[in-house]
Amino acid sequence: xxxxxxxxxxxxxxxxxxxxxxxxxxxxxxxxxxxxxxxxxxxxxxxxxxxxxxxxxxxxxxxxxxxxxxxxxxxxxxxxxxxxxxxxxxxxxxxxxxxxxxxxxxxxxxxxxxxxxxxxxxxxxxxxxxxxxxxxxxxxxxxxxxxxxxxxxxxxxxxxxxxxxxxxxxxxxxxxxxxxxx
Length: 182
Fold this sequence. Notes:
The protein is an all-alpha fold. It contains five helices and no strands.
């Protein structure tokens, strides 16, 4: 069992989940598709910003003070917001040693238990991200650079991204238990 790229013989469509759980899964799939598109745009924009900065500083000798933080904010957003879409494909790095040694039933339970632990960690990370966001918003925190953008921007991207990842993992656990009940 691989958590990486799908086999050529494997279906490219995700299995259909019936009922209310299926509605949630389909809604999350739509959110993931949107976030992946936005993440791709953010990565390209970060590359363009950094390329612009290099050209302007090297050839025109004009200093820039905003490009690094802009690129970082774009990359933080792309990274955190795309986590749920990567999880939906089980594309995160996984160690396959146990998967090959275990029976298919034991491996299903391993995945469920790993997902439950991951959901707990991501929920905690989401909560802490929201506390950072709240603190940055209330205290009007800004970065220490000369440009000084507000810190609620990256904290909000982290909070939303980790919340989406938590929801994605919880949905995967719910689908696994729903399939066991059928």
